[in-house]
Amino acid sequence: MNIVIIGNSAAMVGAVEAIRKYDKASNITVISDEKYHVYSRPLISYYLAGTVTEEKMAYRDKDFYQKNNVKTILGVKAVSIDENKKNVMLENGDSVSYDKLLIATGGKPFVPPISGLEKKNIQTFIKLDEAKSLKSNIRPNSKVVIVGGGLIGFKAAEGLHELGADVTIVELADRILSTILDNESASIVTKRLTNDGIKIKLNTTVDEIIGDDYVKEVHLKNGETLAADHLIFAIGVTPNTDVTKGTSIKVNRGILVDKHMKTNLDDVYAAGDVAEGYDMLIDSNRVVPIWPSAYMQGEIAGLNMVGVESTTKGTFPMNSIGYKDTYIITAGIINPPDSSYDVITKADYDKNSYKKIVLKGNNILGFILINDVDRAGIYTGLIRDRIDVSPFKDHLMKDDFGYVYFPKDLRKSKMLDLEVH
Question: Record's superkingdom (predicted)?
Fold first, then answer.
């Protein structure tokens, strides 16, 4: 059997490792427009800052492809799929035939249509080559404007600040990291950034790029003009579904998949940031672009492609990021949509710490932890396992909260889980 995987990141690794547990014989071909051995994308800001080398970014050992008998076609883009002939067409004119296909093309950066985009020194920040470009061009006091104060913009700002750049974040929302923080937690993180000299412009965005060949200034919707030697678009990513154009593969925001990670075509699967999979908290499909989820979805797809039935229990948003000595872990629903949710908070602004737990009924549905992150694993497990927290709800915010507060039967089952794993 010929198994083809388009994409060379976490979902690919999950699929390959799952396939090879049960199937040593099938041919596996991995196609990627990037030329690199599989690497950890979340580390590109650390590479930019110089705290991680390119070698240390490897997500698996250098012999990963050889050990798993994987043929790679790297540095060549897959441009289309012929679902009738079961071929993947490449930009160089070649084609690769498949019996089973996994689309794991990830996301692509969103860049709004703004006057002046053709100028030089404008880029996005989701790939290693983009980090390399910045690393070679940024000088101390280079003026860098980052459009977008979400996860990508936040990490870009950290890396650029380490290089000595003069960084300004421009964010359309009323706070940075608006999808994973509330106003209180965002204010703590904002203070930490601004203490380092990173400037933040909220409630506005860039509407014009000014310069000749190179960007020199950007004009904001609020009327301000900022000097800029480099402009980075970090507004976010959208599922990279380009390869499905002209096929009957169903796409909403991402490629629609069932709990087997299968598309509407029998032999075609999707996983990772390109897939619109099951979110257990909202009980419906949506794109959840996080690294651990991509691996797990790839694993489920890989098993099903070789006939080992497996279904996903679903995922939910989780993020663990930081800026120097400020640590942030969030999960699930953190800004409740209506009054049917309960919210518990605890803050110590002198220590720049903040905890928020969101509940509905007797279940935790989300949390925010800033600089007080020791219980993150327990809270995440309570969300994932849909545990009734009513017997120990009053203890959730205690500094020593842990299994000791669980009812005896629950505590015993959790301890058994720990022993098994």
Answer: Bacteria
